[in-house]
Amino acid sequence: MGTTDDGPGRSPTATSGQTQGSNGAAAGGAAGGAGGAAAVSAAERGRINHMPGAGTARADAISAGRREMLTDSHRLHIKSLAERGAKRPRIGADAVCEALLRQGVEVFFGYPGGVVLPFYDVLGDYPELRHILVRHEQGGAHAAEGYARATGKVGVCLATSGPGATNLVTGIGNAMLDSVPIVAITGNVVGSLLGKDAFQEIDITGITLPCTKHNYLVREANDIPRVFAEAFHIARTGRPGPVHIDLTKDALMGECLAEHPDSVDLPGFKPNLEGHPRQIRLAAQEIAKSQRPVILAGHGVLIADATEELRELAEKAQIPVAHTLLGVSAMDETNPLSLGFVGMHGWKHVNKTIQSADLLIALGMRFDDRVTGHVPTFAPYARIVHVDIDPAEIGKNVAVEIPIVGDVKRVLMALIPQVEAVAPEARAGYLAEIAAWRAESQKTPWHGSGAWRNGQLSADFVVSRIGEATGHDATIVADVGQNQMWTARYGGFRRPNSHISSGGLGTMGYGLPAGMGAAVGRPDKETWAIVGDGGLQMTVQELMTLVQEHIPLRVALLNNHKLGMVRQWQELVYAGNYHSSHLLGPDWCKLAEAYGVAAFRADSPEEVDTAIASARAVDGPALIEFCIAQEQNVFPMMPAGKGLSDLLEEQFEEPKQ
Amino acid sequence: MSPTGSTPGGSADPAYPAPAHTAPPARALPGHGEAHRHVLVAIVLNKPGVLNRVASLMRARNFNIETLAVSHTDQPEVSRMTITLRGDDVAVEQAAKQLYRLIDVLKVQDVSSDPTVEHEIALIKVRADDRNRGEVLTLADMYKAKVVDLAAESLIVEATGTEAEVDALIALLRGFGIKELVRSGTVVMSRGAGSIEEAVKR
C-alpha cells in the first residue's frame, strides 16, 4: 500500500527543524513552551496539532508547542541580511519575510505580479520560507484556509494588486464566515499613484473591509513590522478570522529601519477568554435540572482545542452531543454519546432530539439558519446555554437564557467540576428513546439514497468507503453542495480537525485548493478532497500545483454530471424545472493525466475499493472519478423557511425505466 | 418524567414528546420588538478609515443610522462618535456588540436610558423681510435661538437643543419659508462625574 509520508520536494519539516535546532539556546529562557516544542523532533513537527492521550509526556510537549504556536512567537532569531550574505539595504520586502518567519510561517501560497515583484526579488534570500505558486489567487486563499484549519496555525496567501487582489476576496470572505485565521497580503501601486486609477489599481482595502476581521493599507516600509505583528495577533486571537494587509510598492521597496515589536498595542482588541463564574454556575444548575439535555458542538470546540473537555462533559453528565457542519470531528463519532450532524441535512434523530430537548448547551456555534431553520419553531421546549467567544453572537439569531462569553475550552474546564455526575442508568430512558429514533433514522443501509437499490453507484457508499479505507484518520476536505453533505453524514470522523469544509460562505471550488493546503500543513496525515464535478471545474487548475509541488492530495470526484444540490432543489422546491443544473464536464481521467495526476475511475460499487487502494498507492497526487447516480438526493432535507420538525424524506419509488 | 404532557400551543410539533415541566410559546426572534430611538456613544481610535468601518458595518448589518456626529476628544489619538438609531433593545445591543468587534473601536455605550445632556445645533436660513422679521425674531427668542446672520430677504437662526426642540422650532419656521437647513446631529454627554473616555484610558 502506498504511503503518504515524506516524498521529495516536501521540505517544510526539515527547514523548520533547522530553525528550531539553531535556536534552542536562544529560546531557553522564555516560557516553558519553547523547550517543549524543541523536544518534538523535526519529523514530528507536523503532528503538533494532533492530540494523543491526555497526561502523557507526548501530549504535554504537544500542547506546549501548541500554546507557543497560538501566542505570538517572538522567540525565533531571524538571521539578518548580513548573516545571509546579502550586501544591500534592508527594505520593506525583507521586513515582510522576517515578519513571516517570526510568526512561525513555514509555507505560504502566492502568485506574483507587477507590484509585488520587489518581494519576489528578495524571497530567494529566505530559503526557510516555502512559497507555493498556485494557479489562481482564489486557490491560494483557500489553500491558506485549508492549511490553517488542518494545523491550527495562521495560513498566509499573497497576491498582486488589482485582479490578483480581487481574486483573493472569495477566500477571504470564506475565512471570515468560518472564523479561519489567515493573513492575506496584497500589493498595491506606489503611494503617489493611489487614487489615480493606475494600472492594476483597485481600492482593495475598501473591498475587503466588510469581509475581514481587520485590514491595513501600508504606505511606509517602517510600518511593516508593527502591522504584521498586529495582523497575526488579530488573526489568531479570540475568534479567529482573516486579516488583510495591502502594501504599496514603495512600502515594499523603501528602506526599513524599524525593528519588529515584541508585543502589540491594540487597546480596542481584548477578547474575553474566561467565562463569567456566575454564568458558569448557572449553566451547571441548568444541567442539573434538565431531563433532556443536548450539547450542540460547533467549530469553536475545534478552534479552542476543547474536544477532550467536550467528551468529558458529555460523559460526566451523560449528555448526547450533536454537531454542526463545522463541528464535524469535534467528537469521535464512535462515542455512544455522539449523535451526529444537525440541521438542514442533518440526521432525523438528531433534529428530533433537539426539538424535544429541554436544555440546549450550544458550544462555539452561532445558530446559523441552516442549523435552526425557522427560529420560532426551533427547539421549542429548550432553555439555551450559549458559550461563544464572540459577544456579538450571543442573542444574534436566537435569544438565549444563559449566555457565557469565553473560550470554550476555558469555560468547559471551569464548568466540568461544577457539573453533577449522572449515571448512565439515570438517563437510560432518554438515551434509549434517542437510540430508537436513531435506529429508525438509519434503518436503511444507505439512508437517503435510493441509488444502491437499482445498482447504481451511490455517493454515500463512496464517502463511507473512503472513511473506512483511510482508517478514519485522514483529513477529508469537502467541496460544497451534495458532496459536502454526504461527506459530513457518511465520512465517519474520529480525529479532531479531520473534516474541513466551507460552511458559512458555501464556496464551490473550495475542496481542491483547501485540500492542497491541508495536505501541505499536515504531511503526516493522508488528505482527501471530496468534490463534485461542478466545484472541481471552478478550481481544477490547482491540479497543476499539486504536481509541481508534489503534494499527495487524493481527489475523490463524485461525478453526477449535475449541479447536484441545485438539481435537488429544482426537483423538490421548483417542481422539476431543471434549468442550468445539468453540466458537461471533461473526460476527467484524461484531464488529470494531462496535468500529470494519476487518475482512476469507478463506475460500479465493486470498483470502489480497488480505486481507493490504487489512489492511495500513488506517490503524489491522484484523482478518482466516481461515476455516481445522476439523480441522487441528500435526505432528509429541511426546506428553506421550515423548521427542524418539517423534514422532507426520501420517497421510495420503483426504479425509472 | 413522562413524555405524554399536554400538547403545547404555538407551532411546536405535537408528534414530539413534550417535557412535562415546560411548554413555552414560539421562540422569540431577536430584534423584532418595539423600536425606540437609541443613542450610542462610541469611543474610537482616530485613524484613517474608522468612520468608513463604522458606516460600512451599520449598512452591512442592516442598522439604520439617523444621525452621526464625529469629533476629536481631549486625547488627540481618540475620537468620539455619537450615533442615533432606531430599533428594539436587542437590535441596538447587537449593533453595539458588532461595533465592539471593530479593532479600532475602544468603547461603545448605549446612553439612551442614562441621565444625559443631549444637544444638536442647527443653522436655519429663513425668508424674512421687513414685514415678518419681527415675528421670526420672537420665535427664535422663545426657543433661545440666536440670529447669526441678517440680510434684507433672509436671516440665519442658530438653534441648539435636543432633537425634539430643534424639530419644533423648524416646524414653526417652515411657515416663513426655509431656504436652507443644516443640522449637526446629536451629541450627548452623561450627567454627573462619570466619564466614558476615562473608562478607556489605561
Describe this structure in words.
The complex is a heterodimer of chains A (657) and B (202). Chain A is α/β, with parallel strands linked by helices. Chain A has 26 helices and 18 strands. Chain A has a six-stranded parallel β-sheet with strand order 2-1-3-4-6-5, sandwiched between helices. Chain A is globular and about 75 Å long. In chain A, 56% of the residues are buried. Chain B has 202 residues and is α+β, with helices and mostly antiparallel strands. Chain B has two domains: 36-113, ACT domain (Alpha-Beta Plaits); 117-188, Alpha-Beta Plaits (2-Layer Sandwich), CATH 3.30.70.1150. The longest helix of chain B is centred in the middle third of the chain and has 13 residues, at 89-101. Chains A and B meet through helix 15 of A and helix 1 and helix 2 of B.
Short description:
The complex is a heterodimer of chains A (657) and B (202). Chain A has 26 helices and 18 strands.
